[in-house]
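Lay summary. Proteins are chains of building blocks that fold into shapes, and those shapes determine what they do. In this project we predict the shape from the chain. Here is one chain we studied, written as its sequence of building blocks.
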Amino acid sequence: MTDSKQSLYYHIYLLIIWEELIRDEDSETVIRIRLEDPGSDQQQGFASLEALADALRNELDKRQE
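And here is the predicted shape, written in a compact code that computers can read:
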């Protein structure tokens, strides 16, 4: 049974992570990250897992205000 005072919130994201080879003198591989909201078709791109984690923390913080 759910407490009527408790706010039910969830959000579904599609997380896409891939590696991309940067063809330069170092030929390094970089991680690319895209977070999609299937409900609104909004997309966000991130260059690191840390940036993704920060964005998700910010989203959660907004929901707790």
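What the prediction tells us: The CA atoms of residues 34 and 45 lie 4 Å apart.
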